Amino acid sequence: MDSIQTAAIDAAKLDAFVTRAINDLSAGYGGIMISIGHRLGLYKAMAGAGPLSSRELASRAKCAERYVREWLNSQVAGGYAVYHAVSDTYELTPEQAHVLADEDSPVFIPNAWQTPASMWADEDKAVEAFRTGKGVAWGDHDQRLFCGVAAFYRNGYRASLVSEWLPALDGVVEKLKNGARVADVGCGHGYSTVLMAQAFPASRFSGFDVHPDSVRVAEKVAAEAGVGDRVSFASARADNYPGTYDLICFFDCLHDLGDPVAAAAYAAKAVAPGGTVMLVEPFANDRVEDNISPVARVYYAASSTICCAHAISEGGRMVLGAQAGEARLADVFRKAGFTQFRRAAAPPFNLILEARR
């Protein structure tokens, strides 16, 4: 193989880029440490406990001390824990605990590492898809993807869906309080559906998803939350679910569909007169040059191997990707026959959009 011919190398720029690449490699190694710490309860054992020796933490978490000591040092090296050299102890700050140990925190991060783990496991499928142009359906991915995505989004929805996003829509909360019919299209494990059902007991909710295993999990989630009598789930595509609804929701799923215009057009028929379609999508600006950030990098990477792959598996008439941006999404709903489309809210990680006929 011929060596790669390059222009003259700027030593300072090379050093800076190598440093960046090593930082990324370090983060990848750190991810498995975070997942292990979560699964073994190490972060929870540290949270609020003050300085602990490695032996004390190992005893609390019922783990082998020598492994725990090495794990702790990796946490200190990455800025995920504090080391007190005088006492040879380790501590989790309140801020670190909020991100690493509190499973109800909106910024709880350990579950998110299941998604890149699934992407590594599915690497051969992604390589084949890149080479052939074929799709990879959602249900064909490693099982960690489904739990990782559901758990990661759950806390964000719990923090903002009822308190911020729904009130940003015109007149929707009042309808939900009085009793409305709601469809959650692409509901996954049903956390968004259940959160709305818990907040609005006068309304009834239907969740639909193409992945039967996720539907079964959603049914269990609803039963455990005590809302199973007002919530139903079924396996259905985004363009063939039954019923008429006052509110139709697409939570972080429209960009995964092979024909988003058809899904939006079907919603236009399924929404009741005066009803609303709520669209929640990953935050993105409309131009690539305006989407240069760590968050955009995460979304583009997941989009390459998961979102676009599933859309292509469904025929790929329009493959939006996870960084579609508001202008492209508005065009989808305009083509579907909606006359009103607006940004209702734009928190850091999402676009909250409202469509009416």
Describe this structure in words.
The protein has 357 residues and is of the alpha/beta class. The chain has 2 domains: 30-102, Arc Repressor Mutant, subunit A; 113-356, Rossmann fold. It is built from 14 helices and 9 strands. Helix 11 links the parallel strand 4 and strand 5. The protein starts with 10 loop residues before the first helix and ends with a strand.
Percent helix: 40-55%
Helix-strand string: HHHHEEHHHHHEHEHEEHEHHEE
Largest sheet: 7 strands, mixed
Question: What gap, in angstroms, lies between the N and C termini?
Answer: 59 Å
Q: In one word, what is the shape?
A: globular
The named CATH superfamily of the largest domain: Vaccinia Virus protein VP39
User: How many distinct folded domains?
Assistant: 2
- CATH architecture annotation name of the largest domain: 3-Layer(aba) Sandwich
**SS summary, helix count:** 14
Topology overview:
Layout: H1 11-39, H2 42-46, H3 54-61, H4 65-77, E1 82-84, E2 89-91, H5 94-100, H6 114-121, H7 123-132, H8 144-165, H9 172-178, E3 181-185, H10 191-199, E4 204-209, H11 212-225, E5 231-235, E6 245-251, H12 260-270, E7 271-282, H13 294-313, H14 326-335, E8 340-345, E9 350-356
Parallel strand pairs: 3-4, 3-6, 4-5, 6-7
Antiparallel strand pairs: 1-2, 7-9, 8-9
Helix pairs in contact: 3-4, 6-8, 8-10, 10-11
Salient structural properties:
15% strand; 9 strands; 357 residues; Rossmann fold
